[in-house]
Amino acid sequence: MRVRLSIRHKLFFTLLLVSAAVVVATYGFMRWSFERGFIRFVEARQQQHIDNLVASLTDEYVRNDGWQELRGNKQRWIQLLVTRQPHRRPHRAPWIKDALRDTSTTWPPPSKLPQRRPFRPLELRVMLLDASRSLIFGDTSQVEHLTLNPIRVAGQTVGYLGVLPGPSLSEIGEIRFLQQQTEAFVIIAIIMVVMSAALTLPLAYTLVRPLRRIIDASKDLAIGRYETRIPVPSNDELGQLARDFNELAHALEQTERARRQWVADISHELRTPLSVLRGEIEALQDGMRVLDRAALDSLHADVMRLSRLVGDLYELSMTDLGALSYHKAPVDPVPILQDDVEALAGEFVQRRIAVHVDNQLAGPVIMYADADRLSQLYRNLLRNTLRYTEAGGRLEIHIRQHQHEVLLCFQDTPPGVPESELPRLFERFYRVETSRSRSHGGAGLGLAICRNIVEAHDGRIGAQASPLGGLLIHLELPLMP
């Protein structure tokens, strides 16, 4: 069975392992450094002891004019070894008592006490040789293993102090001190690991708690609770993640609100023409209205109105999704506008609306755009004037260039739009006067489609009050370098 670990447990074990690794590495380094320094210290003490023994033996040789008095005098030999220690202890070591009780002249004495210990004292590892390297005190079988330290008198070598190889630690106290320090290091390392675990657990909980909030909030978001927000705990990466989550939740909330409004608006817009069609058809079925040419024309007009609405809805949805095909190429936007004005000139004449195009460009301009979509943009704006401008009015179109943009301004005569309504003109299904717009056949989608086309060309579109008393629509379209 596979154990599932939460991120809090993973973080806890990760921090704990890192802490343990640091503690172990620190312990190893400290022990290595301590032992290295301690061994150097003990070796220096041992060398000092050897030098003292050499000096003592030199004095002994000079005083007795040779080794005759020392040879065979085991007690004097032991006295020399003990009295010249650099750090004398207040109590005699057990091996001294054993050596003094031993009546033989062999050295080291055949005592079992040193063999039971892991380290032999330096005094039991030294031997005395004369100038011809004959043993005075020592073991003949171990001569070849000796390290010889010459004893000189008046520049001549009169003997040697031999030292058997062995551990550098020559004192039991030193050995015990090293062992105590090692045990203390181990205990300290264990305590540090336990403390790391005690500190890591709340730390892991503290670090993971914001993530738990985000996980819980994500579950709420997944079931449609878009009003969910989480507090921003800090300014670090977790705080940035919380802010990004809140922005995502806000965007989803806005999208959901727009979707509901979109569905409500579509239902509302489709209900009216369908209700009219249903009423007329039922009137024909009940015989309340004669099925003649006028009735068919009325039904056809309602169907065409419904067809235009569905077409506008389709184009708007395609532009919203970015699926509306754009075949961009270098084009001059001005001739396209002039062609569209000429194509709708008859309708402007019928509505008795004068059209004036003021082209202030010094010559042709080129932009990277889709000519068909630009024509759709222009015609939507022109039909907007045809639909709402009062008869006898006029439309002025001003074209000029500003740096790397071409500016187009469409301004017409009354009726105008209240200042408070201008920012909402490009919202889908929005109409200043619902009844008048519906009577003119508008569904409030034309300007929304215009905005999508302009934004697809990296341009900007806006609306404001016209100096002529009507509405002013301004376009800013980028030109090619």
Task: Explain briefly what this protein structure is.
By secondary structure, the chain is of the alpha+beta class. It folds into three domains: 167 residues, no CATH class; 85 residues, Helix Hairpins, CATH 1.10.287.130; 150 residues, Heat Shock Protein 90 (2-Layer Sandwich).
What does this protein look like?
Helices cover 53% and strands 14% of the residues. With 481 residues, it is α+β, with helices and mostly antiparallel strands. The protein folds into 3 domains: 7-173, no CATH class; 237-321, Helix Hairpins (Orthogonal Bundle); 329-478, Histidine kinase-like ATPase, C-terminal domain (Heat Shock Protein 90, 2-Layer Sandwich). Strands 6-8-9-11-10 form a 5-stranded mixed β-sheet. It has a 4-stranded antiparallel β-sheet with strand order 2-1-4-3, covered by helices on one side. A two-stranded antiparallel sheet has the order 5-7. β10 and β11 (471-478) form a beta hairpin. The radius of gyration is 53 Å and the shape is rod-shaped.
